[in-house]
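DM from R.C. (forwarded with permission)

"hey, sorry to bug you on a friday — could you get me a structure for this? deadline for the figure draft is monday and I only need the backbone to look sensible"
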Amino acid sequence: MRLTKSTDLALRIAMRLAVADRKNPPTTREVADAMSVPYTHAAKVVTRLQHLGVVDARRGRGGGLSLTHTGRTGSLGRLVRELEGVGDVVGCEDEPPCPLRTACRLRSALRAAQDAFYAALDPITVQDLVASPTGPVLMGLPLRS
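My reply, with the result:
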């Protein structure tokens, strides 16, 4: 299983915001630059994180991005499920449908593996991810243009 680029970026943005200076929060553009991604992609991801209650974004002077309490302490497994959406790893019912779909064991084996993947992420939080040595590296990413 491979996470989408948007999910990967969302997790990296959340991690960067977890170590950001709360008195001087970064903007979406600054975070995009620090992560070396296009601003438009970062803006879409930030909007999605806002809708999920993970990021708070304020406009104007003194504005910027901050990680909410839920974003900091919520389950990483839940966040990845929300970002990736629920669904099977393989598309047995896609067009054309797989001829093995009624008697195949692969689908259930892959579902069990996916469930185990999320179960491994469930006890982890974004706050856990920014412990040393990761936090200091994140703090070293330049934010001011």
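R.C.: lifesaver. Helices lie at 5-18, 28-35, 39-51, 69-73, 76-84, 106-121, 126-129, 134-139.
me: no worries. The radius of gyration is 18 Å.
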